[in-house]
């Protein structure tokens, strides 16, 4: 019975991501059995790899053992694997890094035992990969985005990631490292984040390597010095302020980092002839109602304007990528839910009908890498994220999966700048297909009149820390943007923990 079912799965009769399991021992066997029993999880095992020559060429639980670990890349390519699951407990860190690099070279993402939830939250909270059914949470199957073709823009090139210590930035660094860049430069203003990231990727953190760059993107001269010294070929710009309620109260800081910082980077990139530049944006930039959304929309416009300049000069390709809410990012939904449930207090949700688009961190990074590969200049890319998810439904689904029982939900009201429902494209933007069936693009037809002069006035107001003028200028630059009145929501002490957008 197991043999027949496994062969059907291997023949792709069951929908899901094609998965190679590394390790045909007891842990690998348990993982294969669990995945075969729970096809709704979305991982479809198609074979195993193992270094035991007695197992290679045999069938294990109805699946073929396809070869040794050293042949992971060609095996993954031959069998069109989209995920590689490492199921060898106690595997040395250097071997994990080698296998992750081999999987990345085949365009496959990597999952680790003991749990997929651990991969999302970066902490061990379960005993197997069934700890969290992501598809049930986000209302759709996870999309495998990045293709092996990404290696064509990464391999052998100098790649710079800004905001490298953050959730998206660090995952970008891990996956870029697997594609074999000539150099990977990791830029952040937080030295502790860089120390942690170097330890994760290389297994040591001596802090003596030029790959680590301490810099603040607000500092124009420092940014120019970094670019002229390192001369990166590819730039992924993930550095930003991104917490909506905080930026409503501190709009000048949003302008300094998200708008001016982006301008510094694209100007420096043009100066040294960067080949590809990808900005990480947000779905809140579509018809923005918040300072966060407005600042990121202006960042998109700055990138698109420089994309035209780069195209005219024949020097590079500049684009942007919009995300919904990312599961697994620092301070995101999962960690906040776990904290609030663990403390015994109520879960705070802004509104009974509030919805958001969600994606996993693997999808987010895959979208960034694929956008970098596909871009011809000036596009804003968006992943087809299905239907928006009601936060209330997501809370109940999460509670059920972690056996939290009945959960008390307390509604706090939408905060200043928040939307009840997000959109991926503005009303004036056209959704355009790309060569990837789950990725769309849009290209702005125009920009605000005298954008350069208006931005200069905005930067001056931000430098003066004049919140009132900054809000007015944001409204002048983006006619569809209406500044919101600040409101204060008084929360009981027990429920006053920070929570992300929608909570």
UniProtKB/TrEMBL annotation:
Pfam families: CoA_binding_3, Polysacc_synt_2
Signal sequence, start to end: none
Highest taxon listed in the record's lineage: Bacteria
Polysaccharide biosynthesis protein CapD-like domain segment(s): 159-441
InterPro entries: NAD(P)-bd_dom_sf, Polysac_CapD-like, Polysaccharide_Synthase-Rel, SAM-dependent_MTases_sf
Family the UniProt entry places it in: Belongs to the polysaccharide synthase family.
Listed name of the protein: Polysaccharide biosynthesis protein CapD-like domain-containing protein
